[in-house]
Write a structure and sequence with these properties.
Length: 262
């Protein structure tokens, strides 16, 4: 690893059970990830649609969400972006950044995409219909360093539910999964803070192979393919671009998704 690259072991912001760090972008500025999308990624989403509708799951205070919007909007396309996060305080801070933009193309909502299923589906259906009545899916769903927190707090079934949600609601999924060492670091931070441990940590089946497990779910259960490995983020986490196979059945039943959450 290059000496000027950061390591996740250097990231010591304190303990946060759900990854909702209040100063996250001070440690990991948006530019560290945005550099991976320069060039061909933006060209793929240029001007073939009337609008490009994007979703950012786990948006924190929205700096990266807004950076992605600006980057994608630099071409000919009209880009609309929604960021969601389970922490209402972080979402409120994100909303304050666009408070003076009444016609902003970016919006933020407090939402737990795994547990608030009915609210999630209603929100996203309303949003898509308001943008283009015939649209049923986002063009792109981004999910940066969020899989671990879902996995730790909702178990293997929760992780599978998140991936099914992303595949159901978006044509393309850009995901940055955390490796197992990040799980150990998160558990260690809770211990140092004298807080209760992650209750499902010891019961997780997929550990050292978590990235392979995510890839297997996308490829073999959800009809997606790995389109491009975009590179590694500043903390040496892979950023992976999946898209639906042309012949895949894009509809995933609510019953299947519900069953994966149990």
């Amino acid at each position: 690893m290059a000496k000027n690259k950061k390591n996740d072991d250097e990231f010591e912001p304190g303990a946060a059970q759900f990854g909702n760090f209040i100063n996250y972008y001070e440690f990991n500025p948006p530019k560290n990830r945005l550099a991976l999308f320069e060039g061909k990624f933006c060209e793929c989403f240029s001007s073939d649609k009337r609008k490009i509708l994007c979703l950012d799951v786990g948006c924190n205070t929205g700096e990266l969400t807004r950076g992605l919007h600006e980057m994608l909007s630099s071409g000919q396309a009209a880009v609309r972006m929604m960021g969601v996060d389970l922490d209402p305080q972080l979402v409120q801070r994100a909303k304050e950044t666009i408070a003076n933009e009444p016609e902003s193309d970016v919006q933020f909502h407090a939402l737990n995409v795994v547990t608030q299923v009915e609210e999630r589906d209603q929100l996203w259906n309303r949003y898509l219909e308001s943008q283009e009545p015939e649209r049923k899916r986002f063009d792109i769903a981004f999910c940066f360093s969020t899989t671990m927190w879902i996995h730790l707090n909702h178990g293997d079934a929760g992780l599978e539910s998140l991936l099914a949600c992303l595949a159901t609601w978006a044509d393309n999924v850009v995901i940055e999964p955390q490796p197992w060492k990040c799980y150990r670091n998160a558990a260690r931070r809770l211990r140092r803070a004298n807080r209760p441990p992650f209750p499902l940590f010891d019961s997780l089946v997929h550990r050292s192979n978590v990235q392979d497990h995510i890839d297997d779910i996308f490829r073999n259960r959800l009809g997606m393919e790995l389109h491009t490995h975009l590179g590694h983020s500043e903390w040496q986490r892979p950023v992976l671009w999946y898209r639906h196979k042309p012949t895949a059945n894009l509809a995933i039943s609510n019953q299947e998704e519900s069953g994966q959450r149990k």
